[in-house]
Amino acid sequence: MERIAIYPGSFDPVTNGHMDIIKRGLTLFDKIIVTILENPAKQTLFTVSERVDLLKGALKDMNNRVEIASYGGLLVDYAVQRDATAILRGMRAVSDFEYEFQMALMNRKLNREVQTVFLMTGLRWIFTSSSIIKEAVKFGGDIKSMVPPAVHAALKKKLNI
Ligand code: PNS
Is 90 in the pocket of ligand 1 (CB under 6 A)? Predict the structure, then answer.
């Protein structure tokens, strides 16, 4: 049986930290479905279709084992729909723990069959997040080494830099 994981997130936009988690995840799962879902607590810079395109561009070399999707409902429902047995999430620092713990337990309460698997990002990405990258680039910071090249270009275009 194929081991399928959903890697959910806002991906606004995808960063090298996300790419690192996907690469690590592929050592555990046969297929990863990178899925853009709605986080009601966040206002996004890129539209869903822009985020899908950026993910597709960044992950084109992993085409046969990585799929890009978006879904407008509950994460666990999408996992069932796609025969995924796991939700993959990246964990950077202790500060991520409370939010991730709450989300994982809520998802378990909603569906006991879907397990959440946490992977640690590489040390070099421990401080990066889409939000802090967007803030840095907005004020002229050089974030080129933290995102795929097309994301760097898209950020500059979107923010008129
Ligand atoms: O990258 P993020 O913003 O931390 O990802 C959070 C996300 C999108 C995975 C989360 O908000 C989510 O799962 N949204 C879909 C609705 C849902 O199932 N929420 C969790 C149970 S309440």
Answer: no
